[in-house]
Specification:
Structural class: mainly alpha
Radius of gyration: 16 Å
Strand order of the largest sheet: 1-2
Low-confidence stretches: 1-6
Largest sheet: 2 strands, antiparallel
Number of domains: 1
Distance between the termini: 24 Å
Strand content: under 5%
Number of strands: 2
Length: 130
């Protein structure tokens, strides 16, 4: 049985978590830019160049956002959406050559951080006591 720890989480906790996740997502999804373009990719795209092992490492890295979501006590629905994005990124990345391009565009960690931020912002708006 899962215990919901959300009642013990303050707005400062939310803010600190979102800041960490945004920095993490930037590093994994958008920390490098191709010169003379607007296209950015991250460390996860580089790691993903290693067949299968790189994709598994990317999946493990992506688990950080899910871990933070769990720690903050977000709903099962939000965690399921995070897992779905992680799996889309993982299985899409397994396709030789095209998977690496897909991974650079899909940016699962950025998607999941935005999803979590939107959820937490809505929670704080409806329950400002935290």
């Amino acid at each position: 049985m899962q215990k919901n720890n959300q009642s013990h989480v303050t707005q400062a906790d939310y803010n600190a978590t979102i800041k960490r996740l945004e920095e993490f997502s930037h590093f994994t999804d958008s920390s490098f830019r191709i010169p003379f373009t607007r296209f950015k990719f991250g460390a996860e795209s580089l790691i993903g160049l290693l067949p299968i092992i790189g994709d598994l490492a990317g999946l493990i890295l992506s688990g950080y956002v899910l871990t933070e979501a769990q720690r903050l006590g977000v709903s099962k629905r939000i965690k399921l959406r995070i897992v779905i994005n992680m799996l889309i990124d993982f299985f899409g990345g397994l396709i030789p050559f095209f998977g690496d391009i897909f991974d650079a565009y899909f940016k699962a960690n950025t998607r999941n951080t935005r999803l979590l931020k939107k959820h937490l912002t809505a929670k704080l708006t409806t329950n400002p006591k935290n």
